[in-house]
């Protein structure tokens, strides 16, 4: 068994993670495979700092619920992104999650590579960029991707180093699932649907997360952490550390979403756009990098189970607003999303009527 593990580590180390490339070679120039064509590079000088809405969830289950639901609906309709505070996830849980992610990416290379894989079908895997099997230009990102619902099906695959990894991550997954379900109910109501309508469309439900690590980059104007893309899932609940990097496209302008301590960023994914029959849009967003500081972001992707059939809610389909999309299984969508990659920004057009 030890021989097999060593062989696997040797094989995978031929393809260095970005973090190992930086730490081993002390590079001051970007390797060619990370350099974007001139027309695809980020313009880091032309960035707006108008923020996305910040919504207080304190009254989501109180007498002012209708007001909060309305605020969420307006944010979904006009921005596709919003931040939440008083969300019910303990500050200690948030801090533990950020700290354990940082500890994981500071482990020795051979420890991290125990979970390395370039196979996107693996439910627990450490990898780099986005999908290194299909993309032509690499992204300045390493990530640990975990499936986490139901937790008991996956926790045995998760890393055991750092020692408290499974405990802290499991607690975080449970709390963000509770938050996601509250948000999905509110979004369902904001569309004029029954509170439980969207939840019922998700089959047995799915939940994934990514621990994203963006090392300092010697030439951040030539590459991305992740280029502009939409999320293929239902909603994303994002935790970021205190280093800026997320940008959202609004009216043709990239808007920086600066970190606010102990808040979450929520965005609409492609499946919500389909269920809402285009009333709520999945918005392009990207991660940029910098030359001074590492950055950690942790998105939780809440999604349908693979066999769930997704289509516009019948109540939102009328003669004046016919169904924009055909019905499809989430598995069909997810396969196309991963194989197509981020280069084409969105693959919803493949599912239109």
Helix content: 25-40%
Adjacency order of strands in the biggest sheet: 1-2-10-7-12-5-4-3
* Count of helical regions: 9
Uncertain stretches: 1-13
User: How many individual β-strands?
Assistant: 14
Query: Considering the protein shown, what is the CATH homologous superfamily?
Result: B-lactam Antibiotic, Isopenicillin N Synthase, Chain
Q: Give the rounded overall mean pLDDT.
A: 91
Look up the CATH topology: Jelly Rolls
For the termini, the CA-CA separation is 52 Å
Feature tags:
single chain; 353 residues; alpha+beta; Jelly Rolls; 8-stranded mixed sheet; 4-stranded antiparallel sheet; disordered N terminus
Question: How does this structure look, described?
Answer:
There is one protein chain. The protein is α+β, with helices and mostly antiparallel strands and 353 residues long. The protein has a single domain, classed as B-lactam Antibiotic, Isopenicillin N Synthase, Chain (Jelly Rolls), CATH 2.60.120. It contains nine helices and 14 strands. The protein has an eight-stranded mixed beta sheet with strand order 1-2-10-7-12-5-4-3. α3 (65-78) packs across α6 and α4 packs across α6. The longest helix is centred in the middle third of the chain and has 26 residues, at 165-190. Mean pLDDT is 91; it is low at 1-13.
